[in-house]
Amino acid sequence: MSSLPARIASARQPVPLQDGLSLFPALFAPRSALSHKGSHGSLAVLGGAAGMSGAVLLAARAALLMGTGKVFAGFCQTVSPLPCDPQHPELMLHAADALLEAAGSLGISAWTAGCGLGRSDMAERLLHQLLGSQPMQPIVLDADGLRWLAEPAHRPFWRSCLTQAGAPRVLTPHPGEAAALLDTDIAGIQADRPRAVMHLAQRYDCWAVLKGAGTLVCAPDGRLWQNGSGNPGLASGGTGDVLAGMIGSFLAQGVPPEQAIPGAVWLHGAAADYLVAHGTGPKGMTASEVILAARTLLNHPPA
Ligand SMILES: NC(=O)C1=CN([C@@H]2O[C@H](COP(=O)(O)OP(=O)(O)OC[C@H]3O[C@@H](n4cnc5c(N)ncnc54)[C@H](O)[C@@H]3O)[C@@H](O)[C@H]2O)[C@@H](O)CC1
Ligand SMILES: Nc1ncnc2c1ncn2[C@@H]1O[C@H](COP(=O)(O)OP(=O)(O)O)[C@@H](O)[C@H]1O
């Protein structure tokens, strides 16, 4: 990794994320009695190539259960693989092309993109279309979306889309994806995680969430948080898709980024801790169970 600029290198010690209820009041604020579905935002989730449709469903279900007013899912396939989600028919499922085409009329207030997106030409085109159109809504970029961003041939254009954006952009890499984005290897990332996450935030001028035990969050201005919740029960496929949906949900609902992003990270880990405390996992804990526990805590936060 190249050297860090002064404003990043001089960043303070990470703020520990322990007591989510006091740190993230915006997440736990009661709803107005007069609220309606239009009061709680609309999230569009883009990803889900054939064989990974579940990644989009997990992110979209997580967003729904975090309270998003409306949730759309766009699959990177020629038609939606399902007419509706049998577990959550509340979700609106589309082929990604159709969703992007209709986006202007759907009132979308945030995007989560990349979960199971895949590496096809269609995936590349969809991401190009989304980032290149410079939407004025926040975008959370996860999983294969990050792999595309890391491609040397694409990086300059997409990086310019991020750095010139007028709304929050959030990258949520695990160490493998962070290594690709920073031209290093996983060992290089893990050797100095605070430095790596700050570097990501600086290089891409965005919010960066470096996942893994003790997830780190860095704001574009260098503010740093370290998560104190979570456990190895989260080490199973799909939990990252859930986190991407949760962050997208809170941003779609208009929660400020400094509450929405570290707040979602804390709540995601706290949900896993809640499951273990109640006899579910760590072994065999599923991403779907994490969503349900997160909803319980969102409505009944630990005192
Ligand atoms: N139900 C579904 O449809 C699922 C789809 N998924 C999607 O599948 C796509 C590819 O995921 P893959 O798991 O194949 O590939 P990844 O790029 O997620 O992981 C590849 C490798 O990165 C390394 N790595 C990941 N996390 C690490 C950590 N915390 N510390 C150290 N090394 C780490 C590991 O060596 C891992 O095998 C993504 O788009 C993802 O969204 C997955 O989320 C799993 C569930
Ligand atoms: N040992 C662990 N302790 C705490 N959190 C973990 C642990 N292992 C994984 N996680 C969390 O689980 C999630 C895994 O995300 P990711 O690697 O993207 O998985 P996937 O792509 O399968 O969804 C991240 O939020 C990560 O921080």
Find the count of extended strands (DSSP E, 2+ residues).
Answer: 10
Mean pLDDT: 94
End-to-end separation? 42 Å
Number of H/I helices:
14
Biggest β-sheet, characterized?
10 strands, mixed
- What are the distinct ligands in this entry? ligand NAX, adenosine-5'-diphosphate
Percent strand equals: 5-15%
Low-confidence stretches: none
What Rg, in angstroms, do the CA atoms define? Answer: 18 Å
Give me the oligomer status.
Answer: single chain
**Going by CATH, what is the homologous superfamily?**
Ribokinase
Structural class by helix and strand composition:
alpha/beta
CATH architecture, by name, is 3-Layer(aba) Sandwich
Q: State the strand order across the main sheet.
A: 1-10-9-8-7-6-5-2-3-4
* Fraction of helical residues: 40-55%
Overall shape: globular
The third-level CATH topology is: UDP-N-acetylmuramoyl-L-alanine:D-glutamate ligase
Identify the notable features of this structure and list them briefly:
UDP-N-acetylmuramoyl-L-alanine:D-glutamate ligase; 44% helix; 303 residues; binds ligand NAX; ten-stranded mixed β-sheet; binds adenosine-5'-diphosphate; alpha/beta
Quick description:
With 303 residues, the protein is α/β, with parallel strands linked by helices. It contains 14 helices and 10 strands.
Topology:
Blueprint: H1 6-9, E1 15-17, H2 20-23, H3 25-28, E2 42-47, H4 53-65, E3 70-75, E4 92-95, H5 96-102, E5 110-113, H6 121-132, E6 139-141, H7 144-150, H8 155-163, E7 169-171, H9 175-181, H10 186-191, H11 193-204, E8 207-210, E9 216-218, E10 224-227, H12 239-252, H13 257-277, H14 287-299
Parallel strand pairs: 1-10, 2-3, 2-5, 3-4, 5-6, 6-7, 7-8
Antiparallel strand pairs: 8-9, 9-10
Helix pairs in contact: 4-12, 4-14, 7-9, 12-13, 12-14, 13-14
Bound molecules: ligand NAX and adenosine-5'-diphosphate (ADP).
